[in-house]
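Hi L., both proteins are below.
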Amino acid sequence: MKSIVIAAGYATRLYPLTENFPKPLLQIGQSTILDRLLDDVDTIDDVTEHIVVTNHKFAHIFEQWAKQRVAKCKEEGLRKPVSIIDDGTTTNESRLGAVRDLLLAIKEGNAEKENLLVMAGDNLLDFSLKGFVDYFKEKRTSVIMCHNEPSKEKLQRTGVITVDDDMRVLEMEEKPKEPKSHWAVPPFYIYAREDMALIMDCMNHGCGMDAPGSLARYLAGVSTLHAWPMPGKRHDIGTMESYLEVKESGVRD
């Protein structure tokens, strides 16, 4: 299994902090958002390497970060290889979108025959992703993460799924006006190698290109997809307020 981190956005809601610096590499305590995420994934034996897809504007910053992380790997013997994929864009207006960035990372990272753990690079979790990987191995299908969201307003701003008694995804909607359930979908997915041909051809079948959940929505209609209720909390760092809240919330190294 390879992990793919989607980190090609421009984080305009965090300007000026992220105008010339990538959001996933912002500091939280003595670490960064992305390092905290990958430090957990590094403890999962199934994952062999990380692929980070970013834009051309920030690629050099990620490359320098990757060199430092690999150097630390040699010292500690824990961290796994990291490669950086440059999607060639330089502005928010010219961005490819999360789905096309993922397809690029799969192709350029030689991951078309791999199981893939796909993550947004700007989220923090207070639980390990090992349980998510174990669930994938139990179900033997592609899987997505979900959580119960009581707020209709918040459900209208995210992906929402309906499931059966076995947590098989029956339907997924992006930002529905009238949510059909309280199961919200954060940007964490595991795609099975058996679905890779469908995934690589998704753009030819009406799959949206911007929201990462668009691919999960498409896949739910053409293959079997299960959902894993996350066992803890997630911090989505999308605004200056949410970033400062996380920094001040007592998150520790």
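That was the first. Here is the second:
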Amino acid sequence: MRIGILGTGSMADALGTQWSRAGHEVLVGGRSADRAAGLAGRIGGRAGTLREAAAFGDATLLAVPHDSVPAVLKEAAGTNESGGGGVLRGRVLIDCTNAVGPGFVLTTQGGPGAAERIAGATGAHVVKAFNHCADSVWRLTPPAFADGPLAVPLCGDDEGALETVRTLVRDMGCVPLAAGGLDRAVYVETATAFLIGLWVSGEDPRRMLPPLEAATA
């Protein structure tokens, strides 16, 4: 598979490394050509512009800080807030961003979630994925623990896009978890903000969850 990556930070590095290792062709695009070239060299991919990464291959990963998303999408794809689209229109776009501000609250409160806003701005087939864990987890080979491989919740409306991302999840040694349509992504985003707060305070969120058989009894 050919994967374009928008961003040169830790999530772009972690996920790009895994997919390159799995045999996928990766093109890294960044606002800094030097940073894009450096990351591409580390993960065994190629470097290009944001626009080239947006138009590249079978899927595009959006892996930038959430407050940079509008500017990056505008440069990469010629998007606008009223749904202008650009080169990402109709393409598979993986959103791993987190709109989490001070106090571990969503900066999108009072409106659509981050993934829905990105879909509206680009016209892309957005799949929310990989946002619920830090880059250190995605660097594990594989991301598996005592209970088994890590599950990755996926939210999206296009079955073809979801299947593409399921393949990328499995290629990392993880398990795709159907979490509903893109309108459900805001719940994944909210849960992630809640989990981050617990993790930072030293709490283990797993302690509040009963086994499946008990939860459904």
